Amino acid sequence: MHSQFRKEREAQTERVLRAIANPFVDVIGHLTGRQLLRRPGYDLDIERILAACAKHGVAIEINGNPWRLDIDWRWHRRGLELGCLFSINPDAHSVGEIDSSTRWGVAIARKGAVGPDGVVNALDAAGFARWLEKRKARLAAPKPRPARSGKAASSA
């Protein structure tokens, strides 16, 4: 998500949806790529992305870096309604930034009405283990086969 900022809305949304559908992806970070007072985020269909995260059990990062605070807190409640989980991350670029950026992330989560039960890295050990087991089961799930083109072979 650190490139291709100018893709059109549908192409950018599809790019993120493909990542969410990948069974090796557990958390989507830097969702919109915004940097406050520096650059706007990617043009995305956030509603579709939240629905896909809920469907696939992929958590959405609440980035605590004060230049990002991404995903915007106004989307948190909708994510919760759809069944999304969040992950609060400091996005610190030095050890000295970890504490303050984590505090920003928690404050933004609270502003968006996300409680600790909606944050994967705030779950108790048993809750986090359950989430990991669901993630593991996703990797083991059978993959749909692509549709075959052409006529089906007949047996004699």
How would you characterize the overall build of this protein?
- The protein has helices at about 10-20, 45-55, 75-80, 100-110, 125-140; strands spanning about 25-30, 60-65, 85-90.
- The protein is mostly helical.
- A three-stranded parallel β-sheet has the order 1-2-3.
- Strand 1, helix 2 (about 45-55) and strand 2 (about 60-65) form a beta-alpha-beta unit.
- It starts with 8 loop residues before the first helix and ends in a 16-residue tail after the last helix.
- The mean pLDDT is about 90.
List the helices and strands and how they pair.
Elements: H1 9-21, E1 27-28, H2 46-56, E2 59-63, H3 76-82, E3 86-89, H4 98-111, H5 125-140
Helix pairs in contact: 1-2
Core attributes:
mainly alpha; 3-stranded parallel β-sheet; 156 residues; globular; TIM Barrel
Give the ordered list of helices and strands. HEHEHEHH
CATH class: Alpha Beta
The CATH superfamily is identified as Metal-dependent hydrolases
Give a count of the beta strands, DSSP E runs of length 2 or more.
3
Distance between the termini: 53 Å
Strand content: 5-15%
Overall pLDDT metric: 88
